[in-house]
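Team,

Forwarding the record for the chain on the shared tracking sheet. I've put the sequence and predicted structure together so nobody has to dig through attachments.
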Amino acid sequence: GDNIVALSRYVIILLIFNAILIPFSLFSIRYVIDQAKRTGSLGHY
């Protein structure tokens, strides 16, 4: 029984981590692309 509890805790922590990190990383990627567009180094994007 202990294994399932430990696993479910791990999954919950992972979900919370993803819920916080994924939007932040997407925002960072969009920001980097936006900056690259402005400088014109990624003109094809």
